[in-house]
Design brief:
Layout (H helix, E strand, L loop, with lengths): L1 H11 L9 H47 L2 E7 L5 H15 L17 E4 L7 E8 L6 H5 L3 E9 L1 E3 L8 E4 L7 H7 L5 E5 L8 E2 L2 E2 H6 L10 E14 L2 E8 L5 H11 L4 E11 L2 E2 L4 E2 L6 H11 L18 H6 L8 E4 L2 E4 L1
Parallel strand pairs: 1-14, 3-12
Antiparallel strand pairs: 1-3, 2-3, 2-16, 4-11, 4-12, 5-6, 7-10, 8-9, 10-11, 12-13, 15-16
Length: 351
């Protein structure tokens, strides 16, 4: 009995000793895990650095391509923004895609992107807006003298200070007796070379300032004298009083707003432009050539320049510009300088 109790006491007082080397193995495992984590972190940092470097190289290549673009293409201007505002929006999209400007700006070799538009469209109008980029900006003046085509919806019975629906109504006259035959009968008077008085709200200038700017400031502005303009063709597409739709092909310096206003007066009433769409400018058409905003990318612009070069007269076609081959330029991501927008009547250029 005593032996049994002794055995019980003895067994209850036993302590289990750790196996030899267990602590060392645990310490080694912890050290290995820490080393692995540190290595993984270093690998991740290196990968991020490589990704960042690759991204910078890609942006630099896009910047180089953007700066090498030269020629003329067309974009689709929606209603709302002015032509200058739309040009700035296009410029900003292209700059953002190329990562320009960026913190890696260097002052050693500044480059300039030239971009401009030819043929101002009213903010309330939509349609083809011709854009020149690089050396293509030098071709914009020639685009102004080319023909343009418009679809205009006029409204009889109301005259406004801007000659379109955005202005204040200045006069109202009856139109209920005007027929489709009446309108068609007077269109011949507006065909060929005619004299036209430009609108007060226009891009034309007085003392270096746009007439529209002076008018908005409330300054007294005298109308510009009538000047010769050309209408190649004009036809009535639809008449649903008080609205009438015209298809007009005209030369440079022509104002559809003045045309619609003059038609209203010729009909012993008055009229203003309700909607205006430029469907063609020179060889560029709205359906075939005008880039919508979702295609304002460097690649799409490059493809459009290539496509549109075949539309231009041989004397205006630009030879392809060779991109800079300097590794330093590509790797250092040197960017452009931008100055103020300069506007000369219908030609606007941003440098």
């Amino acid at each position: 009995m005593a032996a049994a109790e002794a055995a019980v006491v003895s067994s209850s007082s036993l302590e289990i000793a750790p196996a030899p080397g267990t602590a060392e193995r645990a310490e080694t495992a912890a050290t290995t895990a820490a080393t692995t984590a540190a290595t993984a972190a270093a690998v991740a940092v290196a990968a991020a650095a490589r990704t960042g470097c690759e991204a910078r190289v890609v942006k630099a290549a896009l910047a180089t391509k953007l700066l090498s673009l030269s020629g003329v293409f067309a974009v689709h201007k929606p209603k709302g923004p002015t032509s200058a505002e739309l040009l700035n929006r296009l410029k900003e999209k292209l700059l953002a895609e190329a990562g320009m400007p960026s913190p890696e700006w260097t002052k050693r070799k500044k480059q300039t992107l030239k971009i401009g538009h030819g043929g101002t469209l009213d903010s309330a109008a939509r349609g083809v807006l011709v854009v020149g980029i690089g050396r293509g900006t030098k071709m914009l003046t020639s685009m102004l003298s080319g023909s343009k085509r418009y679809i205009a919806i006029g409204e009889l019975g109301k005259a406004t200070d801007t000659l379109d629906s955005t202005g204040k109504v200045t006069e109202e006259k009856p139109y209920d007796k005007i027929t489709q035959e009446d309108i068609e009968g007077i269109l011949q008077k507006f065909t060929g070379t005619i004299m036209q008085v430009p609108p007060l709200y226009s891009a034309l200038k007085k003392d270096g300032q746009r007439l529209s700017t002076l008018m908005k400031r409330g300054e007294v502005v005298e109308a510009k004298p009538a000047r010769p303009v050309t209408v190649y063709s004009i036809s009535l597409q639809k008449f649903q009083p008080p609205f009438f739709t015209l298809d007009v092909e005209c030369g440079g310096g022509f104002y559809i707003r003045s045309l619609v206003s003059d038609i209203g007066k010729e009909l012993s009433s008055c009229a203003n432009v309700l909607e205006l769409t430029r469907t063609k400018q020179g060889p560029f058409t709205l359906e075939e050539h005008a880039l919508p905003e979702d295609k304002w990318t460097i690649e799409d612009v490059a493809q459009s320049l290539e496509h549109c070069s075949s539309l231009l007269p041989a004397e205006l076609t630009l030879k392809k510009s060779k991109p800079e081959e300097s590794d330093e330029q590509v790797l250092s991501c040197e960017y452009m300088t931008l100055n103020e927008t300069k506007v000369e009547d219908d030609v606007s250029k941003t440098f």
